[in-house]
Amino acid sequence: MADRQDASVGGEQRPPRGLAAIAGKASAHAARLREVAGRLTVRESQLFLLLAVVIGLLSGLAVVCFRVAIEMTRIWLLGSSLAPSWERTLLVPTVAGIFVALLVIWVFPQVRGSGVNQTKAAVYIFDGYVPFRTVIGKFVTCALAIGSGFSLGPEDPSLQMGAGIASAMGRRLRLSKEKTRLLAPVGAAAGLAAAFNAPISAMLFVIEEVIGTWSAGGLGAVALAAVSSVVVLRLFLGPQPIFSVPPYHGFSPLDLVGYAMLGVCGGFASLVFLKFLAFARPRLRKLPPWTFYIQPAVAGLLIGLIGLAYPQVMGAGYVYIGQALHGQYSWQTLGMLSGTKILATGLAFVSGTPGGMFAPAMFIGAMLGGAVGGLEHILFHMRGSVSAFALVGIGALFAGFLRTPITSVFIVVEVSGNYSIIVPVMISNMIAYLISRRYQKIPLFDLLSRQDGIELPSLEEQREQAVLRVEHAMNPPWFPVVRSESLVAEAVAMAKSSNARVVLVRFPSGRWMAVDRTQLDRLDQGDGHGRKLASVMAADWLPTVHPDQPLDSAIGFAQTRPVVPVISRADPGKLEGVLTLKDVLEAYREAEEEGGDGSRPPVR
Amino acid sequence: MLTALLALGIMFGVTEAAVGFYRTKQSQLAQMWFERGSGALSRQQAKEAIQDFRNALNYAPDDSTYQLRLAQAFAAANRIEAAESYLFNLWSSQPGGGEINLELAQLEARKGNPDAARYFENAIYGVWESHPEEHRWQARMQLFQFYRSIGNTGQAQAELLAMAADTPGSDYRRQTQIGQLQLEAGNPRQALQQFRSALRVNRRYAPAFAGAGAAEFNIREYQNALPYLETAVRLDPKDHEVAAQLKMTRLVIESDPFPIGLSDRERTERTLDAYLQAFSALSDCATTRAIVVVGSTPQNPLQESWALGQQQMALMPHFRGQSQTVLKIMNFVFSAEDLAATECGPLQGKDQALWLIGKMHQLAESSGHHGD
Known about the structure:
In chain A, 66% of the residues lie in helices and 4% in strands. Chain A is built from 25 helices and 5 strands. Chain A is elongated, with a radius of gyration of 31 Å. Chain B starts with a helix and ends in a 5-residue tail after the last helix.
């Protein structure tokens, strides 16, 4: 309507003539085009949010079907009892291993592994491209593997399926490359949220492990997708959390010592698991190619053998985590289950069978936690129940093994629906995380990528990299500072007395300008003599920075200005220091000399 | 976008169908395993029941009935912590559930935890899906037994009275049960009231007759106990315990020299019989303890009692049923039987009858109602 009004108004004006008229028309068209382009940009971002909801819904539906497929496969192949007969226990994973190998080698070669680092690779290398075939392959092979008793979980594959669905949608809608790249994490969050019935943890995981930053443009879309997928999941499979957890009755300070001990145990158990994968996976990958056909079958047979004694280690194992949370096992059994699960999951994963590591990590954590809790109960008469220890153990393994410290806290809260356990979880997780990081420098998903010959950015390393800040480079305010009400002659005198090349001028509004001596001399000798600086200076405001800002953000300013004022956040009128390009470059040089890799800030 | 929405619609339909099929299967399997588990639990096969209920819960993880049965199976297998875990979980969502509270109470009672009383109370006032009166009555009964087991007789008695108040007048069986518990708790008079209430409803209920007889026996009203016990034995001749009590009652009545209206001759005979029986009891007890009582200098209670009895011998030639003499002789009899019971353990037959008469006599003297 506004456009039409503008046109009618224009229509009443006398038409311009000649070149001026053409230039005027061109200018008007350009303005209209800019406006339309602006609207289109808005539409794409709105579409992106709508798309996030659709991706969330589709991913949720896919994950529901995936979970049903896994369960039906298990019932069909292993029987409806939780303790299958010995024939099924041995034969089913072995035969299924052969089928999985054939499918992986001949039909779906990209479905190997957990799916997390493949999604990361899609984001960082392939512009968000995840082939839709991978989604189908992941669905089929993982349902077969997990349903037949391979000790793997459905969450990481759900994450990759979500990313694959999102990627396919992006391609279908011919979205820009940038948006398509952002869609993969959106789908990943949706898939993971539905797999865990935990939208917050899924979001956090994607931020911690895939995107690596809170400021990504697609954060809103990630949240929308996660919530949409969880809504779908709850619509079909119910609102209850994955585990039904017994009531938790607080803790005493002594209990916290116990939970700290659990953190230590969790850290070392994570290390054992990580080191096993780090050791065995590349060695099996180096074996002759024909062995890839039998590696999953051999792993299946070995898992079956373990399953004869401990059928709990077969499959994802959620039901057994629930049992451990209800104190159904002795501490000795729990200890054995955590150990055998590490072995069974390690075997399944290194054999190249597709499947996730989240559920096994949670299983190992719950069993280890229960074992530690049971033992502490006997030895030290700790008040904390075995169930509470099992729950905290889940977080400890998550933190130590998957190395996602924030997600590890929230996942426990979300999958259990129990907030009161958060303090022990934080203590235990932090200790497990620190131990794991101390003795295993490369986190799991980076390790797997590097074993596959891909150098993805390590988000843990990025998080922990020390940032050079303005305060590391700035110098005390040695430039002369004059007020804008000062006379030009006063400024000239001050510049002469300080022998400075530039004088900083402070305006009452708190803004700054810089004027060099040549300019000052010219003004003093010309029409500026006897006048105030404010009245003779052209409005060319200096950008300002604060001491805590990253130095990167000040480089642009320092390149184009002779000096950048560093202003106090508490008092915007106070000059804390000044920054020049030379100072910035000097700070980077010193950081490299002192830190080796520029990761340590220089001390000034 | 249209394609996306179409895909969404198709996926929705597919998922709906898949989940529908899965839910049906889940439901069938859950029911199948639950029935197996219930069967195993009723056959006291707790281990099998645990596995079956676990399987059932795998397909219906939020079913509170399955969880409760699993907890019961754990309790039956003496795996208290696992049972408690499920029960506390259930309790947190249904704190007023009668069955859950009762199960928790039983577990806590088994551990001797005083908190059990709280859960029993919750069960008594909680929600029961079927037969609430019956369940509440049973819960109170268990609370009474719990109080009794921890020695809190005051609370136990209070629960018994509450149970009596809650029992309908027409329910003679439950009246009898409460009477028996009152009797066990040492309240024969309240017990007698319950038995009489029961008998007012059913005049041919042997346990109520036996209970009333026992209550009268405990009150030491042997004449009153006799008809109850006789009827009880007639109605249920196989109850040897009641028959033995009847026999003892008759013995007490036949051996008592104090009843009004007894001829002098009869009184004299009963007194002399009692005197000889007391000597016999002392002699038997002394033999058991290897103590010589005949012709020895009194050095211990048995010898002293024997000597006292010898002194009573002087009264015999002139004894013709005089009440003072009867009293003197019987006092010796009572003290001798008491001593024999103290020194050599529970008495039998006529000795026990005489001992009971002694106690009855003491009771009558203390309440000022002499028989003579």
